[in-house]
Amino acid sequence: MRTLYRELERMTDAPITVHRALTCIGEEPGIPASRLATRLGMQRPAVSHVLKGLVARGWIERRRHEGDQRSVQIHPTSEGLQVLRATSGRAVGTLQRAVRGLSARELRQLADGLAALLVRLPEAQPSQAPSPAASISRRGMNVPRTRPSGRA
Known about the structure:
Blueprint: H1 2-12, H2 16-27, H3 33-40, H4 44-57, E1 60-64, E2 72-76, H5 78-87, H6 90-100, H7 104-120, H8 132-137
Antiparallel strand pairs: 1-2
């Protein structure tokens, strides 16, 4: 996982926490900060700091909820979606490289362990993210590298 994190940080010039937050926002556009904090397992002040960085990079925008002006929704921008498209599938590639080095016995153990894990997972909901197969087929996508301007 460290290899994947380092690769994502290198590609986006952003800490992995920023990428994790952007991924959650891309999966659930309009997510409120409180739910994002829960999904990330972070405290709200820390999430607020991450969100300021995402806004500064131009990867997200905050919008007032149409029905309740007190509520703020977080949405990815087109640039944020471009970052997500460019980085999706990296985990799949990293895992594929790791799996290639396993012996037949280790592969069987992994398959058995994954089967046991999948039985214990709650029913998955359809994802809005592209499928891993679609992600793998994309090659050579550039991730926009932007620096925070210091404004929030």
